[in-house]
C-alpha cells in the first residue's frame, strides 16, 4: 500500500484514530496517541510522528520540545481501518514523565 492509499483507507469518520507506537528494535509498546488525517499526512511527509492533542486541541510533533523524536520505520492499519500501529526508532524517552514507555505502571495480579 502506498502513502495515498493509506491516507484514503484509514477510517477517519469519527475524527481521530487510536495510534499505537511500538519500538522497531524490540516491539515494546511505547505509547498510545491519536491521529487525524492531517497528522497522518504530516507523519508520512516528515517520517516523524505527529499527533492531535485532545487536551490542547493542537497538532504536536513528538520530540519537537524534548528532542525525543520518533523516526517512523513502518505503518500498519488494522483490519477495520480504524487503528494505526507505527513502528519507530525512539530517541530517548517516549513518555512525558521521562520513562522509556508510557506503560511503566504495572498491576500485580
Fold and architecture overview:
The structure is a single chain. By secondary structure, this protein is α+β, with helices and mostly antiparallel strands. The longest helix is centred in the middle third of the chain and has 10 residues, at 37-46. The N and C termini lie far apart (41 Å). It has helices at residues 3-9, 37-46; strands at 17-23, 29-35, 50-53, 58-61, 70-77, 84-90. The strands form two sheets. The chain has a four-stranded mixed sheet, covered by helices on one side. Strands 3-4 form a two-stranded antiparallel sheet. Strand 5 and strand 6 (84-90) form a beta hairpin. It contains two helices and six strands; from the N terminus they run H-E-E-H-E-E-E-E.
Question: What are the main properties of this structure?
Answer:
2 helices, 109 residues, 16% helix, alpha+beta, two-stranded antiparallel ribbon, four-stranded mixed β-sheet, globular
Amino acid at each position: 500500500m502506498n502513502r495515498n492509499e493509506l491516507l484514503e483507507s484509514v477510517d477517519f469518520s469519527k475524527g481521530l484514530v487510536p495510534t499505537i507506537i511500538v519500538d522497531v528494535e524490540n516491539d515494546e509498546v511505547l505509547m498510545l496517541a491519536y491521529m487525524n488525517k492531517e497528522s497522518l499526512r504530516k507523519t508520512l511527509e516528515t517520517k516523524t510522528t505527529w499527533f492531535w492533542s485532545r487536551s490542547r486541541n493542537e497538532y504536536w510533533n513528538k520530540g519537537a520540545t524534548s528532542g525525543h523524536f520518533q523516526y517512523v520505520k513502518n505503518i500498519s492499519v488494522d483490519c477495520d481501518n480504524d487503528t494505526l500501529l507505527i513502528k519507530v526508532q525512539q530517541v530517548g524517552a517516549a513518555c512525558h514523565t521521562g520513562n522509556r514507555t508510557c506503560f511503566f505502571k504495572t498491576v500485580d495480579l
